[in-house]
Amino acid sequence: KAKVSGTGYHVYDDVDHDDGAARLRTMDELQSAIAEGQFVLHYQPKVDLDTGAVHSVEALTRWEHPTRGLLHPGDFIDLVEDAGLMRAMTRVVLAIALDQAARWRADGHPVSIAVNLSASSLVDEGLPDEVFTMLSVRGVPATDLQLEITEDFLMADRDRARKILSRLRTGGIRISIDDYGTGYSSLSYLRDLPVDELKLDRSFVQTMTDDDHAAALVASTISLAHSLGLRMVAEGVETLGAYTELTRLGCDEAQGYFISKPLPAARFESWLRRQPV
Ligand code: C2E
Ligand code: CA
Ligand code: CA
Ligand code: CA
């Protein structure tokens, strides 16, 4: 039976024939996706609820697969992780986002871009220096970059996490806790961690208009964030009702289909031009 040397598993094992072959094909495809620029970013605006202005967007990765069409992260993120390619993908995504930030800045309408980081890419102590180099070669200020991390990353290795975050944040990059409220959220880590913003998970936002408990949780989370000096962002805002209620509760920013879905850069630019100023 044939074996692939060095990978530690047998491609043509009787039991594993399909899985192994498919796995290798996927690895191969992911590697060419990275090498051939098949990853693209779509941008979803975050609206400032005090002013209605859009100063920042979240970058969401899409894979323009040569045969399967446009894939969302749910279709490939786990594969990237399993293939050990998250580090490489993160670099690619950061480069695309920072190139875009440089273009928007050159065009005279700077927009800050939030990039999602996986837990695995943030145990990587080389990341802060690399990110600062990527910023400076493009002449993009650190304030044009935001990083979104989930709570699972914080649990992995808290001291290391805090060190990496501090270096990023001291350099001017803003840090958000993503999917806030779904993970292990303790008051002490919020006090200790170098973060700027909480992004309330969409499950709370989506239920707040017809569930009193959810509404109370949202209200108290906003107060908590503000009392700790953190900005509060709501994601998954799909209705006028939620948008209005979040504004009333003093939430700082909102993001969701009610405002716009994630769009390719050019379509985001025309969306932005259509907004009342
Ligand atoms: P996330 O960071 O929580 O991003 C928000 C997700 O909700 C996005 O899904 C977005 O398209 C979707 N969304 C936006 N507005 C609404 C809304 O009003 N209603 C609903 N139901 N959904 C909304 P997407 O683009 O499929 O991304 C899924 C997840 O993949 C992201 O969740 C993020 O955790 C991860 N991801 C995306 N890009 C990257 C990346 O470059 N690197 C890493 N490590 N993860 C990424
Ligand atoms: Ca996010
Ligand atoms: Ca989220
Ligand atoms: Ca505010």
Provide a descriptive summary of the structure in words:
This is Diguanylate cyclase (GGDEF)-like protein. This protein has 277 residues and is of the alpha/beta class. The protein is 46% helix and 20% strand. It contains 11 helices and 10 strands. The protein has an 8-stranded mixed β-barrel, surrounded by 5 helices. Strand 2 and strand 3 form a beta hairpin. Helix 3 packs parallel to helix 4 and helix 4 runs parallel beside helix 6. The longest helix is centred in the middle third of the chain and has 21 residues. The N terminus is likely disordered. One calcium ion binds next to loops.
Layout of helices and strands, plus pairs?
Layout lengths: L16 H19 L3 E10 L5 E12 L3 E3 L1 H10 L3 H21 L5 E5 L10 H12 L6 E6 H6 L1 H13 L3 E7 L6 H6 L4 E4 L1 H6 L4 H16 L3 E4 L5 H9 L4 E2 L8 E2 H10 L3
Parallel strand pairs: 2-4, 4-5, 5-6, 6-7, 7-8, 8-9
Antiparallel strand pairs: 1-2, 1-9, 1-10, 2-3
Helix pairs in contact: 3-4, 4-6
Bound molecules: ligand C2E and calcium ion (3 copies).
One calcium ion binds next to loops.
Feature tags:
8-stranded mixed barrel, 20% strand, 11 helices, binds calcium ion, binds ligand C2E, alpha/beta, disordered N terminus, 277 residues
Tally of strands: 10
Order of H and E elements: HEEEHHEHEHHEHEHHEHEEH
Briefly note the structural class of the backbone: alpha/beta
Strand residue percentage: 15-25%
> What characterizes the major β-sheet?
8 strands, mixed, barrel
- Mean pLDDT, to the nearest integer, reads 90
Write down the overall geometry: globular
Low-confidence stretches: 1-15
The termini sit apart by: 67 Å
